[in-house]
Amino acid sequence: MPHDTSLLDPPGARGTAPAAAPSAHDDLRALEAGLDRLQTDADERPGPWKVFTRSVLPPILFVIALIVAWQLYIVIAQPRPDIVPGPLDVAAALGQAWESGRLQTAVATSLERGLLGFVIAVAVGTPLGLLLAEVKPLRRAVGPIISGLQVLPSVAWVPAAILWFGLSDATVYFVVLMGAIPSIVNGLIAGVEQVPPQLRRVGTVLGAGPWRLATLVVLPAALPGYVAGLKQGWAFSWRSLMAAEIITTGGMIGFGLGSMLNQSRELADISAVLATILVILAIGILIELVFFAPLERRMLRRRGLLQGASR
Amino acid sequence: MSGQTAIRIEHLGKRFGAGPVVLDDVNLDVAAGEFVCLLGASGCGKSTLLNLIAGLDQPTTGSITTPSEGAAVMFQESALMPWLTAAQNVELALRLRRVARGERRAQALELLATVNLADASAKRPHELSGGMRQRVALARALAQDRPVLLMDEPFAALDAITRDLLHEELERVWRLTGRTIVFVTHNVREAARLGQRIVLLSSRPGRVAGEWRIDAAEGRRIESPEVAALSLEITAELRKEIRRNAA
Question: Within a domain: residue A22?
Answer without folding.
Answer: no
